[in-house]
Structure formats: structure tokens, C-alpha cells
Write a structure and sequence with these properties.
heterodimer, A: 211 residues, alpha+beta, B: mainly alpha, Rna Polymerase Sigma Factor, Chain: A, Arc Repressor Mutant, subunit A, 8 helices, globular
């Protein structure tokens, strides 16, 4: 055989295939579409936010982080907020004590639940998580900034475009970590994120996912 | 920042670094080219949407690689990729049949199979530590985990790679933290 002097060379055999010279046209078109969709989403969420009169005290805020005002895109300054109501719903084997209005369960499995906004701004495909909430159950240790809420410890981690909050399941639930991935530009703030995750109940049929 | 500036910078960045991102994604996705392309496209779109952060980064490429790793991890959490249930050691369930590579192409196939048999986060650790030469602390920062986790994941991953790639043929696949 051809000796492989080290792991890096082995990896190079995989990575260093001949690649065509990149043409950024398609990437730019996708980026522009995403920017326009984000602008529309924020604008719609802003209109909805203006109509909201009750927030249950768990969070309504203006999200303008990283907002940009490029000359070719509509400038948006709308406030965004998610309204949580004390209404139970099930996405077996998970259940929730709070319901975010304007959001609906799109996919559910023993390892995860997907909840999408009703405004049609995201993909109808339940496995496409962009712009949606993803409730996951696994055995990976939680990480991030630790905060206490309602007598439980939660961990908040920020990554590109998402905030993920995790907590250990309750003593009478299957052992593991339940976490929710929230998209940054969908109107969720830390108080509402924490409140919603704290309302999750993990049922017996839940199974750990990989990842 | 004007949109024209952002677009021009994005085009130049993509022209210069897309291949690097594809290579990294190919390793993370264990040779699944379609998956890798998806991850790269997602990454580039996210970069465009947060271009101010890219501009502010000390190294835009390093920022992009970090974003790529996050996109990969995010993608592996999608429902259709999470159908299997986790085990304490995913690699432990594999049937390890040591393979002796013959040519570079054979070796490539063996390495791909070995990478594919690692869990996503273990694979990410291997790529960050041994392809991008990040140190333990930086790898932990990218993956949002502790340095201890990086060390243990790395050790497990290398041990597994040594199992599926004939040890005698790869004497330098030694575990480093």
C-alpha cells in the first residue's frame, strides 16, 4: 500500500480532490433570497407584534441585533415578540404547558419535535429546521451560560443564527437533556425561550437522538 | 455598510475560500458530497446574513470554518439524520474490520469509511484538531464544549480510526490530546 505518514495526510486524501473554480453566482443568489426572506419575516413579525396586547410577562422585545440597512433591501425596524399562552398541547411523546401563538407543530418523532411559524416564511419540509424551533432530547451534556429558572438549571448557548437552551429532564421523566434550538430572528427572547423550555414534559416514549 | 460593498466582499470571499470550505465540509460529512455542498451553501448564506460579523472577525476564514462546523452540527440534528438512538460510544457498535489499503484511492475509501463510522461531533473534533490544527482550547470553543470533552472525544476517535485502519500501516495515528 501507499504508506500514510500521518492522519493529516490521510485526511488530505479525502479533502483534496480536484474542485472546480468556484462561481459565486448561485451562492450570491441564495444569499440575496435569504436576506429578502428575513426582511419579510421581520416585517410580518413586526406587524403581528404591534397587534399583541398580552405577553404573559415572558418576553416581548425588539430584536434588531445585526440589523443592516443595505440600499437594495427594505429597511425594517419592526418590533418582534412571541406570545406564549397557558394552553397545553401534545406532540407525543412530548407535551408543552405553554403554546406560542402563531406557531404550530410541523414534525414530531421520539427524538425531536419541530415547531414552525404559521406565516409561511419557512420551509414546509419538517426536516428543514431553518427558522423553526427544534426540541431535541439526547444524552449530550448541556453547555453554555448557566441560569436558574423556576428552580431548575438551564444552559444558554449562542451559535451562528441560533440560541440553544438546554436543561436536564425532571426526575420523573426519562433521563437525559432536553434542549430547544431557537432561530435568532424569529422574535424569541431569553425569557420566553426559558419559559417555553421549562414547560416541556418528556414522555416515556422519548428516545435519545444523535448529535 | 452598503449592500454593494457587502455583495462585492461576499463574492470575493466566496471565490477565494469556497474550495477550502468544501474540503472541510467533505471531511465533516465523511465524503458525502451532496451533504457537504448543503452545509457549505447554508454556511455561505449565514455568512452573508451576518456579514458585519465576518468583517469584524480577526480571520474571516476562521470565522467561516467555525460557522461551517456549526452548520454541520446543526444539520446532523435534523430529524432525518437523528433516527438512530445514541449509545454511550457510537463507535463501539461498529464492526471493526481492519482494512489494508492498497493505493491512494483505496486509502481514501478506507479513510472515508472510518470517518463515516465516527459520530458527528467526534468527526468534527478530528477535523478541527488534525486538519485545521486547532489546539484543544480552540476546538472546545468552536464546538461549545469543555477541553476535557475534546480530549476524550479525540482519544476515542483516534482509537477507533486505529481499529478500522490497519494499525501497522498507520503507525503515526497516535492519540494526541
Amino acid at each position: 500500500m501507499t504508506p500514510t505518514p500521518d492522519l493529516k495526510r490521510a485526511l488530505a486524501l479525502v479533502a483534496e480532490a480536484d474542485l472546480p473554480s468556484p462561481d459565486p453566482t448561485d451562492d450570491l443568489a441564495r444569499a440575496h433570497r435569504a436576506a429578502r426572506a428575513r426582511t419579510r419575516r421581520r416585517f410580518r413579525a413586526g406587524l403581528a407584534g404591534l397587534a399583541v396586547t398580552s405577553i404573559l410577562g415572558v418576553g416581548a422585545a425588539t430584536v434588531l441585533a445585526d440589523a443592516e440597512s443595505p440600499s437594495t433591501e427594505a429597511t425594517q425596524v419592526a418590533p418582534e415578540g412571541v406570545r406564549l399562552v397557558a394552553e397545553r398541547f401534545d406532540a407525543a411523546p412530548y407535551s408543552f404547558d405553554l403554546t406560542p401563538t402563531g406557531w404550530s407543530v410541523q414534525g414530531q418523532s421520539p427524538t425531536a419535535v419541530t415547531i414552525a411559524p404559521d406565516d409561511g416564511s419557512t420551509s414546509a419540509h419538517p426536516d428543514d429546521f431553518r427558522g423553526k424551533l427544534v426540541i431535541m432530547f439526547d444524552a449530550n451534556p448541556p453547555h453554555g451560560e448557566a441560569v436558574d429558572h423556576e428552580g431548575r438549571r438551564f444552559w444558554i448557548a449562542e451559535s451562528d443564527g441560533y440560541t440553544t437552551i438546554a436543561t436536564h429532564t425532571r426526575g420523573d421523566e426519562p433521563s437525559g437533556v432536553v434542549r430547544i434550538q431557537y432561530p435568532h430572528d424569529a422574535g424569541w427572547e431569553h425569557p420566553s425561550m426559558l419559559a417555553f423550555l421549562a414547560s416541556v414534559h418528556v414522555g416515556d416514549g422519548a428516545r435519545w437522538g444523535l448529535g | 455598510m452598503r449592500a454593494d460593498d457587502r455583495t462585492a466582499e461576499f463574492v470575493e470571499f466566496t471565490r477565494t475560500h469556497r474550495r477550502d470550505l468544501v474540503r472541510t465540509a467533505t471531511l465533516l460529512c465523511a465524503g458525502d458530497e451532496a451533504f457537504a455542498e448543503d452545509v457549505v451553501q447554508t454556511t455561505l448564506t449565514r455568512l452573508y446574513l451576518s456579514w458585519r460579523r465576518v468583517r469584524r472577525a480577526d480571520s474571516p476564514l476562521a470565522y467561516a470554518r467555525r460557522s461551517l462546523t456549526h452548520a454541520f452540527i446543526d444539520e446532523t440534528r435534523r430529524a432525518h439524520r437523528r433516527r438512530e438512538t445514541a449509545t454511550a460510544d457510537p463507535a463501539g457498535e461498529l464492526v471493526a474490520e481492519p482494512t489494508t489499503p492498497g493505493t491512494d484511492l483505496d486509502t481514501r475509501a478506507v479513510v472515508l469509511a472510518a470517518l463515516a463510522s465516527l459520530g458527528p461531533r467526534q468527526r468534527a473534533v478530528v477535523v478541527l484538531r488534525h486538519w485545521h490544527d486547532l489546539d484543544v482550547a480552540e476546538t472546545a470553543r468552536v464546538l461549545g464544549c469543555s477541553t476535557g470533552t475534546v480530549k476524550s472525544q479525540n482519544a476515542r476517535a483516534l482509537a477507533h480510526l486505529r481499529t478500522v485502519i490497519t494499525p501497522a500501516e498507520h503507525p503515526t495515528l497516535e492519540a494526541s490530546p
